[in-house]
Write a structure and sequence with these properties.
Elements (H helix, E strand, L loop, with lengths): L19 H5 L15 E3 L5 E3 H4 E5 L33 E4 L4 E4 L2 E6 L3 E6 L13 H13 L12 E8 L2 E6 L6 H10 L5 H10 L17 E6 L3 E6 L6 H4 L7 E5 L4 H9 L5 E3 L7 H4 L5 E2 L10 E3 L2 E4 L9 H9 L3 H8 L24 H7 L5 H11 L3 E2 L5 E2 L9 E4 L5 H17 L3 E4 L3 H10 L4 E4 L11 H8 L23 H10 L2 H18 L3 E2 L3 E2 L3 E4 L3 E2 L25 E2 L1
Parallel strand pairs: 3-12, 3-13, 19-20, 19-21
Antiparallel strand pairs: 1-2, 4-5, 6-7, 7-9, 8-9, 10-11, 11-12, 13-24, 14-24, 15-23, 16-21, 16-22, 17-18, 25-26
Helix pairs in contact: 9-12, 10-13, 12-13, 15-16, 16-17
Length: 591
């Protein structure tokens, strides 16, 4: 029986990226004037609409001229890079973070058994050059990821033995024996852009280093085509022969989408406040003042804190191979010493609730697994007295003349360097709170802000004491399982000095692997039981310490020109620019 849900977004019950990059606005290009026009055109009801009423202005994704439109490249321009909005290229399915459902896209349905997921393609799906989307395109796309190891979806082969054509409209994804993981495969089905084989096999032959291919005239299956892209703006025009009109019952509302290039967040904020930008993904401090004080028609998903739906939790990562930090009681004492409410208030500008000690998000689709009683029994919260009790009564530590605790074996709980990238101002504020809170208890922590490109390899090789970092598991079809894998699974993790891409602290526990393997295929109450056991191990050992919640996207809108954006009270689509976030383009309308 197919697991695919019917089309339509129910009421809300929610790439491995360096999330701070979008906050910095790190681009040298200066924003140009916005494209506007006063010409009229017919609207869907036979009336007249101005060009401005047909053009959606979007911001926050691109901070310079796009170097390419190549979906294989991590430097591609919006929206062809990674798991971004499916305007040009599309995946087989789209994930809805509001309820963890999987919606049809190029795939019409799928069936799962013990050995594979079999996908039925949409019968009328076609490329923008008119050729049909067929199974050969899907197989080619995954095989490209197998040949070209640096392609983002190459990692899906960790869980796949083969991707094979059954017939022109059917593809089978065969699970890897010994590594069966339907959740991770489903995540790949929702995030991998399908490429037209009839074009890309020629591109690949002419460009053996496919990541360097510019793809200046992208031909996708999506509802928009690239008009132009330079250092001032990106322009996309609706493709009115889009096959998905049959699936959705209509075309997206904007006839044109323009993404201006701003020099920094401040310039983007000003244009947004003026109504020159309709919707954006950008960290904007105290956004509520735009509607409370300035009475602007601005909104976010929630009208009160935390304003955005949480989708991930940046972590304080202790290196469990370091003296002192190797002791789980020391790590728990450190966890009790941190003022999490202050981090939510100051570092996250109220865009985070005070973080819990669980690896399960208390809002959104994760909420069904969140166990408040287990958190109360086994977790931590800001409690400096409890931190001191653990150190003094449980561990027998005593303070030295400098006020820093020393364990009975002489290990000093200080001299540790706490790092996060320079310029990531919200994360820098967060670790300042950590260091100040911990110092009051009796830990010795020094702050350091290296360049991101310097710190990244050090995190991966384990060359750090303490670091505020992200884990790859934002809310996907594989979470919350993937979070426990990313934080606690020792399998596949290389020794200190060699690069690993999860479990950066090299934590290990004898029960984790078996529980993770059982949870992969578990459902219902059995899954809840296994997740509770994993969460208990996490909280009793504190291999990482969540510091804040973050949205997948900072989704904010200004209804000066367009109306109908998704909110908690109008949950027509998830408030994102990826996955099922493409669906709100069909729900908005000009005012």
């Amino acid at each position: 029986m197919s697991e695919i849900e019917h089309e339509g977004i129910p009421h809300a019950s929610r790439r491995q990226v360096i999330v701070g990059a979008a906050l910095l606005g790190a681009g040298a290009a200066v924003g140009g004037g916005l494209v506007t026009g006063c010409g009229d055109d017919e609207d869907g009801g036979g009336g007249k609409t101005s060009e401005r009423q047909q053009t959606l202005y979007m911001a926050g994704w691109q901070w310079g001229a796009p170097p390419s439109w190549n979906p294989c490249s991590s430097t591609s321009g919006f929206p062809t890079q990674g798991n971004q909005m499916q305007l040009i290229y599309e995946s087989l399915f789209i994930f809805n973070l509001l309820d963890s459902s999987i919606k049809p896209q190029l795939g019409a349905s799928f069936e799962q058994d013990a050995t594979a997921i079999t996908v039925k393609l949409q019968t009328d799906a076609k490329w923008q050059d008119g050729k049909p989307v067929v199974a050969d395109d899907v197989v080619y796309t995954w095989d490209l990821g197998k040949r070209q190891k640096d392609v983002s979806w190459s990692a899906s082969w960790e869980y796949l033995d083969a991707v094979t054509k059954v017939d022109d409209k059917t593809v089978k994804f065969v699970f890897k024996s010994g590594a069966v993981n339907p959740g991770m495969v489903k995540t790949s089905l929702c995030q991998t852009y399908i490429l037209p084989k009839h074009l890309w096999e020629g591109y690949e032959q002419a460009n053996p280093k496919i990541l360097e291919f510019a793809n200046n005239n992208p031909v996708g299956s999506g509802p928009y085509k690239v008009v132009s892209g330079d250092a001032t703006q990106l322009i996309f025009e609706r493709y009115d022969d889009y096959w998905g009109k049959t699936l959705r019952g209509k075309l997206p509302a904007p006839k044109k989408i323009v993404h201006p290039i701003f020099k920094d967040n401040a310039a983007g904020d000003l244009a947004f406040e003026r109504g020159e930008i309709d919707v954006m993904q950008q960290f904007t401090s105290q956004i509520w003042k735009m509607w409370e004080d300035k009475k602007k028609p601005v909104g976010t998903w929630y009208s009160e804190p935390p304003y955005y739906i949480p989708a991930g939790m940046p972590m304080l990562v202790p290196n469990s191979t370091k003296p002192g930090l190797s002791n789980p009681k020391v790590r728990r004492a450190l966890a009790f010493s941190i003022d999490y409410a202050r981090i939510a208030e100051q570092a996250m500008s109220k865009y985070s609730d005070t973080v819990s000690s669980s690896l399960i998000l208390p809002k959104g689709s994760d909420a069904q697994y969140f166990d408040a009683d287990n958190v109360a029994a086994n977790g931590w919260k800001y409690d400096p007295d409890q931190a001191k009790k653990i150190l003094e009564e449980d561990l027998g530590a005593k303070k030295g003349s400098d006020g820093v605790y020393v364990l009975p074996d002489g290990t000093k709980l200080g001299g540790w360097k706490l790092q996060t990238p320079t310029g990531w101002t919200d994360w820098q504020t967060a670790i300042q709170v950590v260091a100040e809170s911990a110092k009051k208890v009796g830990f010795g922590i020094e702050l350091d802000y290296p360049q991101a490109n310097v710190l990244t390899p050090n995190v991966q090789t384990g060359n750090f004491d303490l670091v505020l970092w992200y884990i790859g598991a934002q809310t996907t079809a594989a979470t919350p399982w993937q979070r426990y894998r990313d934080v606690m699974d020792k399998r596949g993790i290389l020794p200190i000095g060699q690069s690993s891409f999860y479990n950066y602290g090299r934590f290990q526990h004898p029960d984790v692997a078996d529980l993770l393997d059982k949870a992969i295929l578990a459902t219902g109450d059995e899954l809840k039981k296994l997740l509770k056991q994993l969460d208990t191990i996490f909280m009793q050992n504190a291999p990482m310490i969540p510091l804040m919640y973050r949205p997948l996207d900072f989704f904010e809108f200004n209804e000066s020109v367009w109306k109908g954006f998704p909110t908690e009270k109008n949950p027509t689509a998830p408030p994102t620019f990826s996955g099922a976030g493409v669906l709100w383009l069909y729900e908005i309308s000009p005012k």
